[in-house]
Design brief:
single chain, 249 residues, alpha/beta, Rossmann fold, 10 helices, 37% helix
Length: 249
Amino acid sequence: MNDLQLLRYSRHILLDDIGIDGQARLLRSHALIIGAGGLGSPVALYLGSAGVGHITVVDHDRVETTNLQRQIAHTMARVGHYKARSIVEAIAQINPDVQVTAVTHRADEALLNELVQQADVVLDCTDNFQTRHAINRACVRHAKPLVSGAALQLDGQVSVFDSRQPAAPCYACLFPEAHAPEETNCATMGVFAPLVGIVGSMQAAEALKLLCGFGESLAGRLLMLDARHMSWTEMGARRQPDCKVCGVD
C-alpha cells in the first residue's frame, strides 16, 4: 500500500481483526454484486469505500425517480442511466482507486456462470426468486460464498450461504425452488427506506469479513428483521441431504 492508501484505510488498519494484512487482502479481492437497487446501493458504497479492489455490478435496469426514496447510490442527475453505471460513478466519487465494472445485461444462467467463477464473494441484492436461485446454483457450482439479503415492506432478512462448509446450507435448502412463494415486489407492496440500508449494510459487513478472513459468518444462520418493532429473530439451518442443488442424494 502507498502512503495515501495507508491514510485512507487507517481506521481499518487500526482494527486487530483487519490490520495491514487484512486491508491488503481487500485490495486484492473481487466482489460480484448482483442488483444495484435498494440493497445493492449500500453494499456497493461500503465495499468501494472499504477498498475492495475490484467490484463487478450487474443490473439491467435504469434509474427511475421512484428509486430515489431508498436507492442511495443514485441521484436525480442520473435518472434514466443504467443503475450499474450509476453505481460506478457513485463509487468513483468516494474511492477512485477501486476498479468497478458495470454489466448492464440481465443476470441469466450463462452470465452468472461466467461472472461468479471470477469473484471471491457474491452478493445477492436482487428482488426475485428466479434470479436468486440462479445465483445460488452458480455459487454452489463454483464453491463461492454467497451473501444474500432481502427486504420488503417492513421485513428484512440476511444470511450467508457457503457451500465450502460441509454442514452449511445453500439458498435452496431454506427456500426450495419448487415451493417458491408468489412473487411480490416493492412496486406493489412498498418498502421502508432505511430497511434496505440496514440489510445492505449487514451484507457488506459479512462480505468484508469473508474477504478478510475474520469473525464468524452467518453461514447456517438466517437473521430476520421486523423493522416495525426493530426486533431480530435468528433461525439456524443445516444442509439438506435431498437438496436439488447442494445435497448428496
